[in-house]
Structure formats: structure tokens, C-alpha cells
């Protein structure tokens, strides 16, 4: 117990706060209570009172210069509050209503350029002689203050909301075969998609080696192989069927797509008039090319292929019926 030593206090002293009237304390403005007291003395006409002059000489009251400056602020701005320290930085140029307009414009047009934003602000401020165009850096700074960050954008479908495409979309989802898929059950929908996986970089590009030697470190992966995947899955929420095809080398071709679909047809078996399977896939060259079109022959394909070209030619997906009336493609 006698060996236990108590750590002595640090005794860190607090630095004295300079007076606002001193050169070192000019960054410390007078508080609101002191400003109110000074302006009350001025309003009472007691600025030259001997007691006030004595307190001012002892630096217990602000100087007459500060008093006159606050009186000017009160007359010009309606208040005499202190300014916020900004580190002698210039005030932002794009602010107030234009800042709100940019926030609203970015919600509707997130891919807009600085020139388009300037054009929008000009139209919004039409007739304002004080309006000025902003530089791209000023617009970027304003967007940073709004919390907007740059990121990759999704593909914009400019034709999706045309009347003809809206009608085709409605027919596709609400009409029965052969004009739509409204009579196709969820478990009979088969979605097909593809992807390519290729390693671009797996480690740092720099390193150290002796003079005349290359920086070459063997790893677990190779950058020369590209893996491709064809995947199909049915819409059955309980027990969805899945089919896949994995290979390396070239991408998806029409022949490979036909072979993959024929594998699925062999697995699902013949269809009937009461049950039709519907394939849904992207509008890619492998699925919409001449090779695929030539393979769609017979009663099993004709009706649905006409639907794909007649109801939604500019859509993101193509669909066709795989089996109708007991016929299918083998």
C-alpha cells in the first residue's frame, strides 16, 4: 500500500483571453449583451457621461468607434449582430433562390451539364437585369454545398414514354396470347440473361526489383480468360427451375443461344394449349439476330414471335412462347 503513487495533477493553465479591443483579440467580437448595453447607453444620450468615459478608458466598455459602427449597422440592416469568422474567404456567389432552383433541377435532370443549368437559371430569372451566368466551378461548389456527388448514371430511355410505346407496353402486360402475356402463369415465365466475367486487375501495378529485372509476381488468377454465363430461371416462387451454361472465350452467339434454349425445351417437355411457356430476354444481337429469327419455325414459335415485333419493338426485353398446341422446337 505504501508503494502506490498517485499521479500528480497536470496543472494545465488556461491561456488568458485577449480583450476584443486589443490587436490580438480583434478576432473575438463583443458579445450580444455588451452590444445591447452600449446601444442602450447611446439611446439614452449618455455616451459622453463621465462614468461612461471612465469605463471606456479602462476598456470596460467598447470604444466610440465601435458604437458608431453598430449604430450604422442598425440603421442599414436593422441589427448589430457580430459577423461570423470565415477566415477571410470570399462569400459564395451562387446562393439564395438560385441555389434552391439548382437543387430542384437536379432532381428532375440529374445528368444536366453546367451549360444546361445556366440556361435553366436564365429562364427562371428572366427579366432580372442583375442575373449573371455562373462558371462551372461555381456551379460545382454550390452542388457540393447541397450534398450532391458525382456518380455513374443509369441509361436514359428517351422513347419509353412515347404514346405508341406506352400502348405497346399496356398490350404486352394486359392482353392474352397472342397479343400479350396476361394469360401466362408466373411459374411459366422463364427469364434468360447473360454476363461476361473478366479479371482486369487484382493487385498493385508497382513494385520493386533489382536493376535489370522485371517486377513479375505470379498470382492465383489469370487475366487472359473471360468466363461467360448463360442463366435461365423460371418464375415459380416455390421451386424455380434453373438452367446454366458456362464457358470461356468468345461471347454469346446465336448458335449458342439456340442450343441453350433447345436444352431448356427438352427439359420442360411438350406444351399444351392450356399451358404455354414464355421466354423473356434482352434485345441483344444473339437473341434478336437473323440466326435466332430463322430458328423460330412452326406453330410453337410463330404467334409469339409476331407479338415480339408487333407490340414492343423498342423495348428492353423480347419474349416469345416456347410451346403451344402440343408443338415445340427440338
Structure description:
Residues 1-22 are annotated as: Disordered. With 330 residues, the protein is an alpha+beta fold. It has 3 domains: 23-77; 97-145, no CATH class; 163-198 and 223-328, no CATH class. Helices cover 35% and strands 12% of the residues. The strands form 2 sheets. The protein has a 5-stranded mixed sheet. Strands 6-7 form a two-stranded antiparallel sheet. The chain starts with 31 loop residues before the first helix and ends with a strand. The model is unreliable at 298-318 and 322-330 (pLDDT under 50).
Itemize the secondary structure elements and their pairings:
Layout: H1 32-43, H2 50-57, H3 64-77, H4 97-108, H5 114-124, H6 136-145, H7 163-174, E1 189-198, E2 226-234, E3 242-248, H8 254-268, E4 278-282, H9 285-288, H10 290-295, H11 299-311, E5 317-321, E6 323-324, E7 327-328
Parallel strand pairs: 1-4
Antiparallel strand pairs: 1-2, 2-3, 4-5, 6-7
Strand content: 5-15%
Protein structure class:
alpha+beta
Order of helices and strands: HHHHHHHEEEHEHHHEEE
- What is Rg? 38 Å
Instruction: Provide the spatial order of strands within the biggest beta sheet.
Output: 3-2-1-4-5
Question: What's the pLDDT, averaged over the residues?
Answer: 78
- Give the domain tally: 3
Give the number of helices.
11
Low-confidence stretches: 298-318, 322-330
Percent range for helical residues? 25-40%
How many strand segments?
7
Q: How would the global form be characterised?
A: elongated
- Tell me about the largest β-sheet: 5 strands, mixed
Distance between the termini: 94 Å
Amino acid at each position: 500500500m505504501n508503494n502506490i503513487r498517485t499521479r500528480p495533477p497536470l496543472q494545465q493553465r488556461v491561456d488568458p483571453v485577449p480583450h476584443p479591443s486589443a490587436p490580438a483579440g480583434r478576432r473575438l467580437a463583443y458579445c450580444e449583451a455588451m452590444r445591447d448595453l452600449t446601444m442602450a447607453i447611446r439611446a439614452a444620450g449618455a455616451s459622453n457621461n463621465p462614468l461612461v468615459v471612465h469605463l471606456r478608458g479602462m476598456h470596460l466598455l467598447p470604444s466610440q468607434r465601435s458604437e458608431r459602427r453598430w449604430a450604422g449597422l442598425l440603421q442599414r440592416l436593422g441589427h448589430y449582430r457580430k459577423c461570423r469568422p470565415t477566415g477571410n474567404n470570399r462569400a459564395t456567389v451562387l446562393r439564395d433562390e438560385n441555389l434552391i432552383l439548382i437543387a430542384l433541377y437536379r432532381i428532375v435532370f440529374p445528368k444536366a451539364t453546367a451549360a444546361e443549368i445556366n440556361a435553366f437559371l436564365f429562364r427562371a430569372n428572366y427579366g432580372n437585369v442583375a442575373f449573371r451566368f455562373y462558371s462551372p466551378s461555381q456551379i460545382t461548389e454550390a452542388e457540393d454545398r447541397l450534398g450532391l456527388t458525382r456518380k455513374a448514371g443509369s441509361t436514359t430511355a428517351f422513347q419509353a414514354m412515347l404514346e405508341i410505346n406506352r400502348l405497346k407496353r399496356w398490350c404486352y402486360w394486359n392482353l392474352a396470347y397472342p397479343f400479350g402475356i396476361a394469360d401466362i402463369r408466373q411459374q411459366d415465365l422463364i427469364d434468360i440473361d447473360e454476363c461476361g466475367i473478366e479479371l482486369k486487375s487484382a493487385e498493385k501495378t508497382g513494385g520493386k526489383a533489382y536493376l535489370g529485372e522485371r517486377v513479375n509476381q505470379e498470382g492465383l488468377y489469370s487475366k487472359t480468360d473471360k468466363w461467360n454465363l448463360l442463366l435461365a430461371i423460371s418464375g415459380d416462387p416455390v421451386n424455380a427451375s434453373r438452367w446454366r451454361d458456362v464457358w470461356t472465350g468468345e461471347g454469346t452467339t446465336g448458335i449458342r443461344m439456340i442450343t441453350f434454349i433447345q436444352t431448356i425445351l427438352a427439359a420442360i417437355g411438350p406444351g399444351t394449349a392450356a399451358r404455354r411457356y414464355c421466354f423473356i430476354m434482352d434485345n441483344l444481337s444473339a437473341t434478336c439476330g437473323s440466326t435466332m429469327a430463322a430458328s423460330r419455325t412452326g406453330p410453337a414459335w410463330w404467334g409469339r414471335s409476331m407479338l415480339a415485333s408487333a407490340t414492343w419493338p423498342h423495348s428492353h426485353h423480347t419474349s416469345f412462347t416456347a410451346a403451344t398446341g402440343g408443338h415445340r422446337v427440338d
